[in-house]
Amino acid sequence: MSPDRHRRTVVLGYGNPGRRDDGLGPAAAAALEARPLPDVAVEAAYQLNIEDAATLAEYGKAIFVDAAVSGPEPYELRPIAPASTIAFTSHSMDPASVLAICEESFCPAPEAWVLAIRGYDFALGEGLTPRAEENLNAALDAVRALLQVKEDRTHGCRTAHKNHTDH
């Protein structure tokens, strides 16, 4: 684990670009890669996997970016904590479960947010709808603003606490 991990952020954009607006996560990742920010790494994938927990261990902050079928427009940005129970299938995991595995295996999990960008068309096909592209641009402004916040908070570690109390 890098000693300067608290300064670094990872953005994980995920979704299926072959299902129109479901590609909002990878589109956000591509846009952030095109205009790199200091101390920010960007990754894109079809879905979250258990291996992403090891990636998170290298960062102090994480932003999970995905398309939303419903919910606020143009996006919702909210903090998340590690899940109290880990849920996954062989095909995908949710962000809170990835954080929980990170905390259990690599303690502590990074400070994290979910950015759910509202999409409208999830049928087979390439390219975002015009409304989804507008939402993406608004969401990217929010990500850039969030990354401007320079605060290093020390995180508690449930696993360490649990180990101390399990005697």
What would you say this structure looks like, in words?
This protein is of the alpha/beta class. It contains five helices and five strands. A five-stranded mixed sheet has the order 2-1-3-5-4. Helix 1 links the parallel strand 1 and strand 2. The longest helix has 19 residues. It is globular and about 40 Å long. The C terminus is likely disordered.
Separation of the first and last Cα atoms: 27 Å
- Gyration radius, to the nearest Å? 16 Å
Number of helices: 5
Summed over residues and divided by their number, the pLDDT gives a mean of 86
Secondary structure class reads alpha/beta
Q: Name the overall outline.
A: globular
Q: Give the strand content.
A: 15-25%
How are the strands of the biggest sheet laid out side by side? Answer: 2-1-3-5-4
Biggest β-sheet strands, sense, barrel: 5 strands, mixed
Number of strands: 5
Helix amount: 25-40%
Extract low-pLDDT stretches: 150-167
Order of secondary-structure elements: EHEHEEHEHH
What is this structure, in a nutshell?
The protein is of the alpha/beta class and 167 residues long.
What is the topological layout?
Elements lengths: L8 E6 L9 H11 L5 E6 L6 H5 L4 E8 L6 E6 L14 H12 L4 E8 L11 H19 L9 H8 L2
Parallel strand pairs: 1-2, 1-3, 3-5
Antiparallel strand pairs: 4-5
Structure characteristics:
167 residues; alpha/beta; 5 helices; 5 strands; globular; disordered C terminus
